[in-house]
Amino acid sequence: MFTHMNAFVMLNESRLSFGQTVCAIHENESKKSRFMFEVFNFGLEQKCKSVYFYWGDIQTFKDKLYEYGLDLESEEIKSNIEVHEADGYYRMVNMDFEKMILKLIESIKDALKEGFKGCIVSGDVGWPIRTQEAIQKYIGYYLKFKNTCPNLPLLRITNFEADKVSTRLLINLLHSHDMVLCSELSLPKQSAIVSEKTKERKQQNIAKVIMKNTKPLSSCYNKRLYKKKVV
Fold this sequence. Notes:
By secondary structure, the protein is of the alpha/beta class. It has helices at residues 29-45, 58-68, 72-77, 86-92, 97-113, 132-148, 167-176, 190-200, 206-213, and strands at residues 2-5, 21-26, 48-54, 81-85, 118-125, 154-161, 179-183, 214-216. An 8-stranded parallel beta sheet has the order 4-3-5-6-2-7-1-8, with helices on both faces. The chain is globular and about 40 Å long. The two termini are 24 Å apart.
């Protein structure tokens, strides 16, 4: 599903469930912080533990959440939420996706032992994924994750900065993730997506794929772009 966010998505209306992989593309740090505020509240309401690998200054992030009304330090003391430095974590596992999957499974087991119904693991991708090799490696991780953990009580969310998402990467995200959440200004033009897909000449017509997977939430969304045919 390709869901268009107006400002931020109300997660309770997105039909999220365990086993899903979700990608969220944000215009800026403020929009991402607001989105994660919603993610944490969603986890608290659903009795799920939230684990977040944040790319940036954690104290600044905590201050922002406090402005929104969430005392992150208090929730960390209660073990409802964990926030880790993403850069240090990725260095520790040396970008070994096998290790990352094993650590995700460990997080789920720990959450269940602590009495939670499941686990919501979110992580920031703070570097651009530009080359085809890098895209294939990243997508391969997600496909392996979906095959390894389909029945585990885990919801996986990945945050991207809009300026680090190329058209080609977006196409691959649409195919590999159960849901792509995108704010209005961070979405590449559909004509660019169609053009890229035409050049690649893959099995499917990207216009049809987008039409099938898109469920816009904003009334100002230009649906006419999705009627464009690929020659």
